[in-house]
Amino acid sequence: MHYFTITRSVVFALLIINKAGGLIFNRTFAPGLQKLDSNDYLILAGTFHGIHAISRSINPAPPEPQTQPPATHPRRPITTGIESLESSHFRLTCYQTATGVKFLLFTSPEQPNTEVVVRRCYEIFGDFVMKNPFYNLEMPVRVEKFERALAGYLVRP
Amino acid sequence: MSVYSLYIFDRHTECIYTKRWTDRHALPAIRSTAGGALSNGSSSTANDIPAATRRAMKHSDDAKLIFGTIFSLRRMVRQLGGTDDQFLSYRTGEYKLHYFETPTQLKLIMLTDLHVGNMRTVLYQIWATLYVEYVVKSPLAPTEHASGVGVANELFEGGLERFIVSTM
């Protein structure tokens, strides 16, 4: 007897990490990842924050050849950290904003356009959290409109 | 489409093989100051550690950082995806890191540029046709490669060079 597993593209969870490495938002939208308690998510966010920084410093790509000699001393090239991570059961897309906030999106490996999805989450964050006058910066996000807008965008009916 | 480096770690978390095809700690070629030109240089300020030693320290630091990174990522993936989930690779804006672990907890890590696809089969082949053939089956190589003894033999290195050149 055959069991078919229909793989569909689905968003499992979204985590938002502030620029100090602390978790400020964590929500699961579909089952598929292991159930972790809130403490585990905090530890995970801090660990990933550190790994993201290390992944920038182990960049092996040779620096671009410079056409003219640098003015004072050679500047180190701008490097980025982990943008995407693949495992057999999920894919993690990390978008780091210019202010140092990291958006971690956990999806199934088949989910296309994860970059577009995470940018849209950032836009929703900007609209409902950043523009909220009562939100304290770098603190945990407790904004209901944000949660509703996010659920409307990420949860498949 | 290029491969930057390959690292092999054994089950005792030691780096037993390193191979670099690009040197990112290469010293800058020309540094001109207002007064004159300094070539190939250690900095003009008095520095007790010679440049060559500093480069070697940076290279061994790289291996340690890479091991720490994959160890933590592997643990994170197991936590999130279940005990049968495997960390496969990650990508930054500049490079990709590919990971392959054998049942004997030997870890092969390859850093490449962004234009390569899935290197899992490549890493599997490096392990099966080069490492197992030339290192494991070598009667002169010890079973435990403490600090890399016995791994970097001629056949393995030559085979690896030819293999990488043929896939690039």
TrEMBL record, chain A:
One of its GO terms (cellular component) is TRAPP complex. InterPro entries: Longin-like_dom_sf (IPR011012), TRAPPC (IPR007233). It comes from the Eukaryota. One of its GO terms (biological process) is endoplasmic reticulum to Golgi vesicle-mediated transport. It is found in: Endoplasmic reticulum; Golgi apparatus, cis-Golgi network; Golgi apparatus. Its main location: endoplasmic reticulum. Transmembrane segments: none annotated. SMART domains: Sybindin. Keywords: Endoplasmic reticulum, ER-Golgi transport, Golgi apparatus, Transport. Belongs to the TRAPP small subunits family. TRAPPC4 subfamily. Part of the multisubunit transport protein particle (TRAPP) complex. This is Trafficking protein particle complex subunit. It comes from Meristemomyces frigidus. The lineage of its organism: Eukaryota, Fungi, Dikarya, Ascomycota, Pezizomycotina.
Automatic annotation (TrEMBL), chain B:
It is found in: Endoplasmic reticulum; Golgi apparatus, cis-Golgi network. The keyword Protease does not apply. SUPFAM superfamilies: SNARE-like (SSF64356). It comes from the Eukaryota. One of its GO terms (cellular component) is TRAPP complex. SMART domains: Sybindin (SM01399). Belongs to the TRAPP small subunits family. BET5 subfamily. This is Trafficking protein particle complex subunit.
